[in-house]
Design a protein that fits this description.
single chain, 521 residues, alpha/beta, six-stranded mixed beta sheet, disordered C terminus, transmembrane helix
Length: 521
């Protein structure tokens, strides 16, 4: 929750090149698959097989139901009929990765975001949280085998923004153009979400999402030289995060802050989502906002009176929020605190699940994944999204006056940006334990920032950013639209693919997965 900026060497480059965006190639036609027990749920979408196998269907009808009941219990491969949900073109199979297996480690699972049942949440002890990240790490260390992530990253992922806009200098440079552009794109995402979900009357979510209370610890992003710019970016980022939660049908979001100005920015973010504009004239109580309904989603705000500190004396807002919610769920808080958390109607009985996230974290989740995780977290697992890393790129920076040393050029290895449709049948399949970006040495900051840092010498952008060359670049239709690595801040990668599902990868003798081994269907 603190934004740290690296000193960067600024270099100019003339005449930015035109970016070419191409969709990935269509997969080659595959031979018909034989009917097998693991495909029994797909009979409805395989008419040829169904006709040929018609004499067997009566005999299999009882068996099919039994097989389905077994499949939905399998932790790493869950199959659901999704045609009732909108708007997925394929009946998608949701395959899950397991903590401690599939080359999945603690850093791969860190997204500052998780989703679990209230019952499981109440069994956690957050008193030992000495850093804001411990809301995830301390819990995962005790029960990492319960962590579940998706093999197809487009099923359940988040776009994490603040480090990205920090590298581009959105808060610190004298030129406000890049900050204005980011705010404008986030506001467009917010308005698009409101139009699709509320104005369009789209039915979203599941019984699990509607029974989920979202905990959103909040600290505003600060700009020392340009304070209003920090406020504007904070409001737009929070509103976009809220819009992404609205899109998946979360029942209630409680923003949990502390500073005296926080409540005004939170209220303006609520107004931006509800009205399409951040109304600066709205005022609010210094303690809390009354329960508010934005479309089908409830929102609220709580101000922590005396939050704990981290080991390095920063405000530990996540710890304060989680302890407050836990205290209220156990009935150990006063009525005012419980009403602020639960909305004052039917108390805490509605909220059977807890989702933790940050105010700069945009969620993307397919309906099929929401169903799969509803089953999984109901069994005591922890659902964790992949944390996609947006990357400074010429596509997002051209014409905004950003120094070219602060973004990737739209040429050579960085000239192709794959466009993936998260509402359709595109995929980004998990690449396993192969993390090429972290194999080329450390530079004192996150590996993907190395080429933007002063420690990396040379004018050739492809040499400076050699750690990024093995990764594909992508933009998500239905997301913010910013260019992202097909990878996370800790180097795990996914392989983009148009119109195909992710099969379990073929493993070699060292149990490491290379991108060429990732399977598609």
């Amino acid at each position: 929750f603190s934004l740290r900026h690296e000193n960067m060497k600024l270099k100019r480059r003339e005449d930015p090149r035109q970016l070419e965006i191409r969709r990935p190639p269509h997969p080659q036609p595959q031979p018909p698959l034989l009917l097998a027990p693991t495909h029994i749920c797909n009979i409805a979408v395989r008419p040829v097989v169904a006709i040929v196998a018609a004499p067997l269907l009566v005999a299999l009808s009882v068996g099919a139901a039994l097989v389905l009941s077994v499949l939905v219990q399998v932790e790493v491969e869950v199959d659901f009929p999704h045609q009732r949900l909108r708007p997925e073109k394929l009946k998608r199979r949701v395959r899950l990765l397991k903590g401690g297996e599939d080359n999945l480690d603690l850093h791969d699972a860190f997204a500052a975001t998780w989703w679990q049942s209230t019952e499981r949440f109440l069994g956690q002890d957050f008193r030992s949280m000495d850093a804001v990240e411990d809301g995830c790490f301390s819990m995962f260390e005790r029960s990492f085998e319960d962590v579940r992530m998706t093999r197809d990253w487009l099923d359940f992922s988040v776009e994490h923004l603040s480090k990205w806009w920090g590298v581009m200098g959105a808060l610190e440079t004298d030129n406000p153009a890049i900050s204005d552009r980011i705010v404008r794109k986030l506001e467009e995402y917010v308005r698009r979400s409101w139009t699709e979900i509320v104005v369009g009357g789209s039915e979203v979510g599941t019984e699990v999402t509607k029974s989920t209370i979202v905990v959103l610890p909040f600290l505003a992003y600060q700009s020392t030289d340009h304070p209003p710019r920090g406020d504007t970016l904070t409001i737009a980022s929070l509103a976009a995060t809220l819009a992404s939660l609205l899109r998946v049908g979360m029942g209630r979001v409680v923003v949990f802050g502390h500073l005296s100005d926080d409540v005004h920015m939170v209220q303006r973010a609520f107004a931006l989502l509800r009205n399409g504009a951040a109304d600066s004239n709205e005022r609010a109580s210094q303690t809390a906002l009354p329960t508010s309904q934005i479309g089908p989603m409830e929102v609220g705000y709580i101000r922590a009176k005396d939050p704990p500190l981290t080991f390095d004396n920063d405000l530990n807002i996540p710890k304060a929020a989680l302890l407050s919610l836990r205290r209220s769920l156990k009935g150990n808080s006063n009525k005012e605190e419980r009403d602020l958390w639960f909305g004052g109607t039917n108390g805490d009985s509605r909220w059977k699940y807890v989702y933790l996230t940050e105010p700069d974290t945009i969620l993307k989740a397919r309906p099929s994944a929401l169903l799969a995780f509803g089953e999984s977290i109901g069994q005591g697992r922890i659902a964790v999204p992949h944390r996609l890393q947006p990357i400074p790129h010429e596509f997002d920076a051209t014409g905004a006056g950003v120094d070219p040393s602060r973004y990737l050029p739209s040429s050579g290895a960085f000239g192709e940006v794959v466009v993936l449709d998260t509402k359709g049948d595109d995929s980004c399949c998990d690449g396993g334990g192969h993390k090429p970006g972290i194999l080329l040495g450390k530079c004192g900051t996150f590996w993907w920032i190395c080429g933007f840092d002063t420690e990396e010498e040379g004018d050739d952008p492809f040499q400076r950013h050699k750690r990024l060359v093995p990764y594909q670049l992508m933009r998500l239709v239905g997301g913010t639209g910013f260019v992202s690595l097909a990878g996370t801040e800790h180097g795990r990668q996914c392989i983009p693919r148009a119109r195909g599902e992710c099969n379990p990868p073929v493993r070699n003798q060292t149990d490491r997965v290379h991108p060429r081994d990732v399977g598609f269907s």
